[in-house]
Specification:
alpha/beta, Rossmann fold, five-stranded parallel beta sheet, 55% helix, 10% strand
């Protein structure tokens, strides 16, 4: 993963980071600018049945939350869900090279567009390497307790690289 100063982030990683760490301050420490497309803001603020991560998202005033819907290319809107499509479109529109997407389809399409990728586990590994104080096993446990699915391979990588 390139050491980037800007990133566009999707709904899933925001929820995962809140589950893992209890807030989103890690993003402020790792990036100078974290952009959130309007479409992702809408998904988060709807909050699902539990409203999980809504308060933490709203408290994260350092996030640059897009104020209007994006004009998303037909290819992106036909290929991905609204949030992933918006993340990729915003990155392309604003010439930001890195996106944070956890879902496999979104990651594939981002690669097709020449974007660098990270996900919630990639952010946790980088945070650990840069001295952010947390225990990776407990962060993974809290993510799983919130129903966030992680493959055994991803968990193994996180535990090996994030110590």
């Amino acid at each position: 993963m390139p050491n980037t100063k800007q990133i566009v982030i999707n709904t899933g990683p925001i929820i995962s980071l809140v589950a893992a760490l209890g807030n989103l301050t890690v993003l402020e420490l790792l990036y100078q600018q974290v952009l959130v497309p309007w479409e992702v803001c809408q998904e988060l603020q709807r909050g699902g049945s539990s409203g999980f991560a809504v308060a933490e998202f709203e408290q994260a005033t350092f996030l640059k939350k897009w104020q209007k819907p994006l004009k998303i290319s037909q290819f992106l809107s036909n290929s991905l869900d609204c949030g992933e499509a918006a993340v990729i479109q915003l990155a392309l529109t604003e010439s930001i090279s890195t996106v944070c997407i956890d879902e496999a389809a979104g990651r594939r399409v981002a690669r097709l567009h020449g974007l660098f990728l990270t996900g919630s586990i990639g952010i946790l590994i980088r945070a650990k390497r840069e001295g952010y104080p947390f225990a990776m096993p407990q962060a993974i446990k809290r993510m799983r307790e919130q129903g966030i699915w992680l493959s055994e391979r991803v968990i193994r990588i996180a535990l090996e690289q994030g110590h």
